[in-house]
């Protein structure tokens, strides 16, 4: 569920509607700086702090629903909890280090162009072709997936080596996203103090640790049920 400013303050209603329609999970996602979302941000965007506050309220509501007997999962929390509580990977490209772009997945567009991710394809729609690996009609597999561009992208996408990330206590649970950094801040490394993805992810991880620190048997049971 991608959140526009019109969704803020209505997470409970949205969650109830998902349940009414028979879903047992939702992924509460903030607006990402790509494509039309970036083009029309003045109409649908909001401060990241507003999303964080709404996310916490939504997560609390989902936990209460589970306590009352309705099994319902919040997808982003489940991904983070798997990384925090187990030794297993999630396969979620946005939280990998090195980033999963181009090595855990790639996008083949209708015209044969190959991009490191769907977000990179969306950037190309607005004439930014930085993350285009090549074209299937013009380039070999080796040129695209063992070429200088992809090597450069991955070298800039290990959070163990990125400024601020390397000293962050949450580094083992997070990842690097060079495509988002480029779209939001103009380069693949980004600047963590003003990086919205960083602020959002750190705030949610911190909140999950607060919930775990309560040692509430019901909350612990619910979280493990999401992982199992």
- Oligomeric description of these chains: single chain
Tally of domains? 2
Q: Please report the distance between the alpha carbons of the first and last residues.
A: 23 Å
The total count of strands amounts to: 5
What is the radius of gyration computed over CA atoms, rounded to a whole number of angstroms? 19 Å
Report the uncertain regions.
none
- Count of DSSP-assigned helices: 11
Helix content: 40-55%
* Overall average residue pLDDT: 93
- Which outline best applies? globular
Please report which band the strand proportion falls in: under 5%, 5-15%, 15-25%, 25-35%, 35-45% or over 45%: 5-15%
Run of helices and strands: HEHHHEHEEHEHHHHH
Characterization of this structure:
- By secondary structure, the chain is mainly α.
- The chain has two domains: 11-91 and 170-178 and 187-227, no CATH class; 107-155, no CATH class.
- It is 47% helix and 6% strand.
- The protein is built from eleven helices and five strands.
- The strands form two sheets. It has a three-stranded antiparallel beta sheet.
- The longest helix is centred in the first third of the chain and has 20 residues, at 48-67.
- 31% of the residues are buried.
């Amino acid at each position: 569920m991608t959140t526009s400013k019109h969704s803020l303050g209505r997470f409970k209603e949205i969650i109830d509607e998902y349940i009414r329609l028979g879903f047992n999970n939702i992924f509460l996602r903030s607006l990402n700086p790509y494509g039309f979302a970036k083009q029309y941000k003045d109409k649908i965007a909001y401060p990241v702090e507003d999303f964080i506050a709404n996310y916490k309220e939504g997560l609390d509501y989902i936990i209460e629903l589970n306590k009352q007997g309705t099994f319902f999962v919040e997808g982003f929390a489940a991904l983070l909890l798997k990384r925090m509580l187990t030794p297993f990977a999630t396969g979620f490209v946005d939280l990998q280090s090195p980033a999963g772009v181009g090595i855990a997945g790639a996008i083949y567009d209708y015209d044969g162009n190959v991009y490191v991710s769907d977000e990179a394809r969306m950037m190309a729609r607005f004439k930014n072709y930085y993350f285009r690996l090549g074209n299937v009609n013009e380039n070999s597999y080796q040129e695209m997936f063992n070429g200088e561009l992809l090597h450069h992208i991955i070298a800039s996408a290990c959070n163990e080596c990125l400024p601020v990330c390397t000293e962050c206590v949450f580094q083992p649970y997070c990842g690097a996203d060079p495509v988002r950094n480029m779209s939001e801040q103009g380069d693949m490394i980004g600047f963590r103090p003003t990086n919205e993805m960083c602020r959002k992810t750190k705030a949610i991880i911190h909140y999950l640790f607060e919930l775990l620190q309560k040692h509430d048997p019901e909350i612990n049971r619910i979280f493990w049920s999401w992982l199992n």
